[in-house]
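Box 3.1 A note on notation
Throughout this textbook, protein chains are presented in two layers. The first layer is the amino acid sequence; the second is a token string describing backbone geometry. Keep the layers aligned when reading.
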Amino acid sequence: MRGRVAVARLRSTGQVPCRRSRAHRAELTFSVSHPERLLREGHYAQCPSSCAPVFLGAIVEYVTAKVLELASDEARRSSRRCITLELLDVAVHSNALLSGFFVTTTISQVAPA
């Protein structure tokens, strides 16, 4: 217990650097270690760069935020309070850029009105 108190005291003075995850250092909400593991297990490159999983995490976070923003706009237009799967489907397929990515994807089993 004494060791932890001493380390905490040193950290508060700035003498010992705090451990932070790569996602925290990159100011991302999404994990960086998960895309890294998928890159390694998928054998997409012999030696993936250390920046590649950070970049992939940032891309996934951006696309997710964009889809949720479009779905919330669609919910507001249809005067609903919750984002449903149908609203996600309509939002993705009504956007010109995202509809190209999700051309063969069906998010909801219900056909949009």
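The CA atoms of residues 46 and 104 lie 31 Å apart. The chain has a mean pLDDT of 83.
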